[in-house]
Design a protein that fits this description.
Layout lengths: L1 E6 L8 E7 L2 E10 L13 H17 L10 E10 L8 E5 L7
Parallel strand pairs: 3-4
Antiparallel strand pairs: 1-2, 2-3, 4-5
């Protein structure tokens, strides 16, 4: 179940594309879309700076959870979703990298 799209904080640079629940695990999902695989893979766009920015925004989101509802932080993970389409978005291919690395 998706609970947020394009989540940003006023205090930090960066954005989480999608936030949602996979059973009892809170998932922070970065989406990278490309029209070709010829140059470099979409997942390569999540470089050290991007991962750093994502970690900070994830931390801010977790801190914003209501204590009454979440007395302890929920389990969470970072996923990366790549989307490729060549000339026709209706024929897109998707690949989900669960538990993608946030550290360098």
């Amino acid at each position: 179940m998706i609970v947020a799209r394009n989540y940003r904080t006023a205090r930090h640079h960066g954005e989480i594309d999608l936030i949602g629940w996979d059973k009892d695990v809170l998932c922070f999902i970065e989406v990278k879309t490309r029209t070709t695989r010829d140059v470099k893979p979409a997942e390569a766009a999540v470089d050290r700076k991007k991962r750093h920015d994502l970690k900070i925004v994830i931390r801010d989101y977790l801190r914003s959870l209501p204590v009454r509802q979440f007395p302890e932080l929920p389990q969470w993970r970072f996923d990366l979703l790549t989307v490729y389409y060549d000339n026709d978005p209706a024929l897109a291919t998707f690949e989900l990298f669960r538990n993608a690395r946030l550290s360098s």
